[in-house]
Amino acid sequence: MKKGLLTIFCFLWAVCAQAGSRQLGTGAVMQIEGSSGSGIVPWATIAGYGESDETDFTGAYTFLDTDDYEFEALGVAVGWHNRIEFSVARQSLDLVTLGPAIGLPGATLRQDVFGAKVRIAGNLVYTKMPQIAFGVQYKKNKDFTIPGIVGARDDSGVDYYLSASKLFLAKPFGFNGFATVTLRSTEANETGLLGFGGDLGSRHLNVETSLGLFLNSSWAVGFDFRQKHSNLSFASESHWRDVFIAWIPNRHLSVVAAYADIGDVATLQDQQGFYLSLNGSF
Amino acid sequence: MTTLNYQWIKNKWMVAFLACSLLAFQVQAEDKQLYNDLGGADTIDAITTELLDRILVNEKIAFLFEETNRQDLHDKIVNQICMETGGPCEYEGLDMIEAHSGMDIKYSEFDVFVSDFIAAMEAAGVSYRLQNRVLAIFAPMREDITYE
Question: What is the span of the domain harbouring residue A40?
Fold first, then answer.
């Protein structure tokens, strides 16, 4: 509730302030770890709408409810000169079903994610080559008791990713299509909420991708996929996927609604649910 | 044997020639199509009027056109859109690099111009998908126009 109010306040502030000059939608949205991207995949985009002489701030609140879990993320990011992005996000996973089952009602897993990303080459819209960026996400658990019990080795870890994103003007059929491929090296269990490394291994290279289409200047639809690996023998991880629709009425506001399938999470099977994300930029 | 080889080479050239002509025709046909789809000279004139109404009073970029005569600029832009979309015009102005040299145009100013251009097409009644086709032609010119 507090977070909700804070978010609304941020939006009101954002609407009153000035945003950068890049074209609508090119700032993408904040993904669950605080980086600019789509729902679960970081893109090569730099947060906000700033160009080479502008700096933009973005804030986002994200909520996903499967029957057995409630996931929340709150993040802020700054995009400097369409070159460098810094972000901070707090994730929390409420163990709605597992908590009471293991005698810990109200148990929640939380972690902080500190992200940095640099655009190496290209421009999402204007160059033939895709926009390419390299990023890191340093993750630190706030609650390591449960991850420790299930066999995680560390309460912190670093993800490295290389991402390529491209907007295709007037393709297909006169619409603007967009695509991203991201390669991520990570040791995280369930993005890090269940710690890092385990009895089955640690670092893996995963592929993530987003594909979508702008239906008009303010509505976009798309699809995300995120490959995952299992480090913990107590429960295997599933690949994640979602379909999303985004509404971007102006450079200050974007709303993403999605249906996410995160599969089996910590022994509970077939987790699916609605995802909502509110983004403010200024 | 040599005759066969010769024949084969000749055919290869023939195929290449045909492919090239087809490709050229395709490109030209596509471009011509855009000029017609837009609604020809009337729409391009309307887009340009709307564009100048915006960029000449937009405090972020108006200064770039301070030394330009409006009618002159109007004619040049109409002429260029006409040519680039495959209309029956020949662009007579300077190329994009020459036309903007010394102006030190920033990426952000280019983007402000593009936003005004999109708004102008919208005001002139150009559909979203046609707007995108026009933008696809002009987007690659960013590096020639800007100075970064």
Answer: 21-275
DSSP labels for chain A? -HHHHHHHHHHHHHHHS---SSPTTTT-EE-TTSSEESSS-B-SPPSSS--TT-EEEEEEEEEEEESS-EEEEEEEEEEETTTEEEEEEEEEEE-TTHHHHTT-TT-EEEEEEEEEEEEEE--TTTSSSPEEEEEEEEEEES--HHHHHTT--BSEEEEEEEEEEEEETTTTTTSEEEEEEEEEEE-BSGGGTT-B-BTTBS-EEEEEEEEEEESSSSEEEEEEEE------TTS----EEEEEEEEEEETTEEEEEEEEEEEEETTEEEEEEEEEEEEEE-
Number of domains chain A contains: 1
**Residue among A52, A169, A216 whose CB faces B107 most closely:** A52
- The answer to the question of residue A55 being in a domain is yes
Alpha-carbon distance B106 to nearest alpha carbon in chain A (angstroms) = 8
Superfamily (CATH H level) for B3-145: Globins (1.10.490.10)
Per-residue pLDDT tens over the stretch B25-35: 444 445 569 99
Confidence of residue B21 (pLDDT cuts 50, 70, 90): very low
Q: Quick check: is A2 in a domain?
A: no
The ranges assigned to domains in chain B are 3-145
Reported ipTM: 0.88
Between positions 17 and 36 of A, the ones with CB within 8 A of B are: 20-23
CB contacts, 8 Å: A55 with chain B: none
Mean pLDDT of A177-202: 97
Q: Do A52 and B115 lie within an 8 Å CB cutoff? A: no
Interface probe, candidates A51, A123, A173, A215, chain B, greatest B C-beta count within 10 A = A51
For residue A251, what is the domain's CATH number?
2.40.160.40
For the entire predicted model, the pTM comes to: 0.88
Look at residue A62 and tell me if it is in a domain.
yes
